[in-house]
Amino acid sequence: MSMGAYDEDEHERRERQASKVDTDFDDERTIHHGTIEYDSGESADDLLDQFREIKSN
Length: 57
What we know:
Elements: H1 8-19, H2 44-56
């Protein structure tokens, strides 16, 4: 068979594979409890001052 030739058996195998439905999983949602904290860093004015200082050098 040449490269790129149509293979009906392979096509049917892939079609069967794609049509299978996997029901072997837990359908319940996971609920997470807790808090999220983040440090946004410096204020916008501080960052602008730092930018101007770097730019002036």
